[in-house]
Amino acid sequence: MLKLDYTYSTDYDYNTEHSCDSSGCYDEGICRCGHIVDAYVNSVNLSSLTEEIYSQFMPENKKSRKRETRISEILYGGEIVDKYCIYRILVINKAFDTGYWEVNICGGYYGQEINDVTISVSILNHINSQCERLFQLETLSEKLRYVLELEYGFLLDDVKDCEFELISIYKNHIDFKKLNQNHIKNVKGEDLKHYSPTEYDLPRGIVRGEIDNYKIIDGFHRIIASEDKKPFGVFRVIKNEI
Predict the structure, then answer these.
(1) What is the DSSP string of 22-85?
(2) Any idea of the CA torsion for 107, 13, 187, 92, to the nearest 10 degrees?
(3) DSSP string for 96-114
(4) Is 143:87 a contact under the CB 8 Å cutoff?
(5) Coil, helix or strand at residue 212
(6) What pLDDT digit, counting tens, does each position of 71-88 carry?
(7) C-alpha angle 164/169/173, rounded to 5°?
(8) CA 59, CA 55: separation in Å to the nearest integer?
(9) Which among 10, 14, 161, 241 would be 20 to 30 A from 26, CA to CA?
């Protein structure tokens, strides 16, 4: 079972109230009356959270972890694929929603302190069970189809019976002309900082087609947020030959 505490994957804030006069702090010469109020989570770093969750599914023993990593790389592409899928699972479960997070307080010798920052147990249970299923799947195609069906509830015909490969492309390799231009404009107007290259370094989506004519199947926001002149990873659909 995944742990509850992800303090280092969140940004949180709070205020502290004091009652030094009535608490005798001045007499003792040490303030011990700090009382934390209005503690809340500002934001959740999904990339950091992905790393934390991935590490929990890896063996603690270094030799076992190294062996597991090598096997997974041979079978389906390894760490980058699993982290991509975990990130998708976090988004599907809205782990970015600060309303699902709580800043927990404890007592200390010098007043109250932040104990930890935890996610809703029900949300964590969903993430845990879905990640467990993810790590049971042994091929790239199975893993990608799994997260696509989790997110959309069904699979497009293009991905029902196909293989995938991880490739590196540039944004100008995508054919944007046939897409809804109003949608593109609206997405560009959104805050996509969490998908900037400095914040997000995983594959950005799933495409079909050939170079200079790729069509986006999934990952529109992540691809829009990529830099124009730097390559990024995507999974390309490969049709099975009959």
Answers:
(1) HHTHHHHTS----EEEEEEEEEE-HHHHHHHHHHHTS-SSHHHHHHHHHHHHHHH-THHHHHHH
(2) 0
(3) T-GGGEEEEEEEETTEEEE
(4) no
(5) coil
(6) 898 889 999 999 999 999
(7) 105
(8) 8
(9) 14
Residues 154-194: pLDDT tens digits? 999 989 989 999 999 999 999 888 777 887 888 888 889 99
Secondary structure element (H or E) that encloses residue 182, with its range: helix 181-188
Cross-strand bridge partners of residue 117:
103
Q: Residue 190 carries which DSSP code?
A: S
Residue 240: the pLDDT is 61
What's at 85, amino acid-wise? C
| Domains of the chain, residue spans | 1-155, 156-242
Q: In Å, what is the CA distance from 50 to each residue of 41, 95, 172, 185, 200?
A: 18, 11, 29, 29, 11
pLDDT at 226 (0 to 100): 94
Q: Which amino acid is at 100?
A: Y
